[in-house]
Amino acid sequence: MLSNLRSLCKAAVRRSRVARGFSQVVKSAATTGKGVARPERYQFNNSRLVEFGELPFGEIPDALAVDRPFNLSTLSNGVRVCTESWSSELATVAVFINTGSRYERIETSGVAHFLEHLMFKGTSRRTRAELEVEVENFGGQLNAYTSRENTSYTMTVFKDDVPRAVDILGDMLLNSKFDQAAIEAERETIYRECLETSKDQFETTLENVHYTSFRDHMMGQPILGIRENIATINQEQIREFHAANYIGPNIVVVGTGNIQHERLVELVEKSFGSAPAQRPSGLVIPNTEKPYFTPSVMMVRDDEMANLNVGVFFNAPSWNDPDYYAFLLLQRVLGEYTADKYTGHHLNSADRQYNTIHGFLGQNPDISIHKAVYAPYSDSGIFGSYFHGNEVFAYQMLHLSQIVLSEYASYINVSEVFRARNKLWLELLQHETSNDVAQSIGNQILYLNRRVPRGEIAKRVSSLTPGHISRVANRWFFDNELSVVCWGPTHSLMSQAHYNRPLRRSTLGWYGNAHYFT
């Protein structure tokens, strides 16, 4: 026994000497002024950590405290040029257009997505084949997407091929021919894309949520358009939509990676300088009024489906709302759940997680998927949960998201806030590719007209305390209206197929809904 005690004392003395030696090395390196200056506190230093081993509110990790330099210039025709540069062999040039399916009409629903496809079908300078071969020959990656309020065309290339990328994108967006033959040939492709998208149960449920949430506005119509319109969209409608929306003030060109700002401005001036500074007289942009959230319930019964899809959504803040960053954090608080990840008697067991909603989902073994969704727009937004599981648990899926969010209005565990904050910080650190950074910059310029660096995002989120989150939840969720979509074998829910007080009783938290889990 005495020998064991002596060995323990010797080990403690050795550890103390090592610690003293390490601190002396750090101190001497910091005070001698020789060589590279080193900070006194290293990344693994825990002197700032508080409860649960986390940073205090208002502080952020050192890795997020430094942001790259950002530059923004505006051409004479209103085109904005942005760059965020760093040393790399690759560069991304992305063009964002401030237009999407929101600015269509019922008779032209789908024209924005149709136009995106036709941009790849040839210009006055390049045929379709020449365009494809040219991009392929210098190893470029060309992608595009259409959303409700913006459209993006992105090309990632080697750093020496940036001039070619800008020239190709400018040629595509301003000089496309929109031939009648190309329009007819593309109808089948777009129709097939619509059919494939309809097989994605998550995406289809979200489209239904938008429809029932914004019933009196084009924001509620599908991004790909009304399927019947694919056969009727004509050349005149496409040219009119292009002329009305592809103008200088609506265009943002973003360069990220190994790109010099002055050089990119010159290239954009050459390729996009011909873009008109204003839309032709007589063309009016529709649907600029704010879409109002419609409390409603939508049942899409299909008894042949194996499982039920449920979407429970609330009205939510826009990009410009002061509560925007609180909702970014709330989205991470709810997180994502899959039954194969959070089941079993091990450390990943659902009841051993800090996330409240995951703990309840673990008690319902046939609820296989949950995703928190926050979709902000320029003047509106929606927030809620998507569930996928057996119809036996239909009521649990229908009301669980309401209960948890409403309870957050009274109390949220600080550990859940810390955990969501860390997850968001990790996501910011992982946005390192030139494409990811370009997408972030493009959306911020379109919606906020400024770059929000990741350090500012991290700082704003770090300042959100549990009390702040509870006040936000009380403002947006507690006893508030909601929209519900159920798609699949909904026979057990048909008594709830109309919007009434019992449907949204869970917005009162456990006080109004305890019987659902008894």
Number of DSSP strands? Answer: 12
Task: Describe the oligomeric state of these chains in a short phrase.
Answer: single chain
Largest sheet, order of strands side by side? 1-2-6-3-5-4
> Total number of helical segments?
16
- Residues in helices, as a percent range: 25-40%
Low-confidence stretches: 12-44, 511-518
Sheet with most strands: 6 strands, mixed
What structural category characterises the helix and strand content? alpha+beta
Strand fraction: 15-25%
SSE string: HEEEHHEEHHHHEHEEHEHEEHHHHHEH
State the end-to-end distance: 57 Å
How big is the Rg? Answer: 27 Å
Q: Taking all residues together, what is the mean pLDDT?
A: 87
Gross morphology: globular
Structure report:
The chain has helices at 2-31, 111-118, 128-137, 162-175, 180-198, 201-213, 235-245, 261-272, 324-334, 356-361, 394-408, 414-430, 434-448, 454-462, 466-476, 510-513; strands at residues 70-74, 80-85, 90-97, 141-146, 151-158, 251-257, 296-301, 308-315, 336-338, 367-376, 381-389, 482-488. α4 (162-175) runs parallel beside α8, α9 packs across α12 and α11 (394-408) crosses α15. It has a six-stranded mixed beta sheet, sandwiched between helices. Strands 7-12-8-11-10-9 form a six-stranded mixed beta sheet, with helices on both faces. Helix content is 40%, strand content 16%. It is of the alpha+beta class. The protein contains 16 helices and twelve strands. The chain is globular.
Observed structural traits:
518 residues, alpha+beta, six-stranded mixed β-sheet, 40% helix, globular, disordered C terminus
Summary of the model, kept short:
The protein has about 525 residues and is α+β, with helices and mostly antiparallel strands.
